[in-house]
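Hey, resending since the last one bounced:
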Amino acid sequence: MTAVRSARGRAGPASWPLTPIEELDLYLDSAADPSLIQLELLVGMHLDVAILAAALAKVLAGDPAVRRHLEATSRWRRRLRWETGAPGRADGVLTVARWRSPGQLAALREWVAGWPIPLCDRAVRLVLAAGPEHDVVILQTHHAAFDGISSLALFTAIGAAYRERAGGLPSSGPRAVPPLTTRPFGTTDPARARGADCIPRALTRIAGRLPGAATRITACRRERADPGRLLAHVAAQTRAAKRRPTAGLDATSRLLATGWAPAAVKGPTVRLARYLAAPLCTDTALLSNLGVISCPPSFSGGTEPLWFSGPARMPRGLGVGAVTIAGQLYLCVHYRHALLDPDAAADFTALYCEALGELTGSPA
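The structure tokens again:
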């Protein structure tokens, strides 16, 4: 067996079983509701497609686990397995699209967000959206294979490989980064924040204003008084969860995802349980915060705006992604049309920014 390094830094074989969390995420995935992590980077210039393809190939060749895909095997096996693709096998990973107006970019963003990644072939997709004055690069990863942090690390590696290959080549577009004014996908304009707990508190205030039962997001007073202590407390729990593959699952989910039955039985069982008891067993991860990024992805060498979003499965149908770069907080609100229409999503986003402004003392 060939030893490889996984996307989360673990050493593993060229073929290894999915963890219960990964397997459960795979069973909850569907063509109508793909389980994708999406990172969008606004580049203040035009990128060279050939150089980008070469940079992507270099990163794929250097990290075998990034090339992972589902092993071709019988669905009657009790555990599904990953296997590593060949270094030169990168078909379908890079897609190039063009847009001419903010409306076209918004439509492209929404279409890409609903485009499933075929795990039998790959777990990664890179989209170069070439615009009239600047380009946008979108990285998508399947949540069964990547989390937000490992997706961010992959994006950073691709940007570094591009800069290395591009060298001192002049860009064919302006270096300045213009702001995007429309966010039909729910993405908000950048908002500044001070304090580690302001985002959960903003969500709590919104829940208190909206009709229906409010969801309380709490931390003990001693930890909330010290942002550093609060982050350390959350980080300690996260590290503990990473050490235990089933730490993020309740007892029912562990039962559904472990090897008690073949995959062909477990998959329909998980989806049926979700259908019958969705309000009781739905994913409640409303907020995903990647934190302060000291070395963010960049294709130009400068600071480039970055937006991050995770899956927004129904019946939750809503997710807020947050990332902080150079003291600037970037927010993305990912919503499902089955839950909100564009006007309602815009109202929620405005309310969210208003709550953040109240907490930080800065205009939203």
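The chain has one domain: 4-360.

Sorry for the duplicate.
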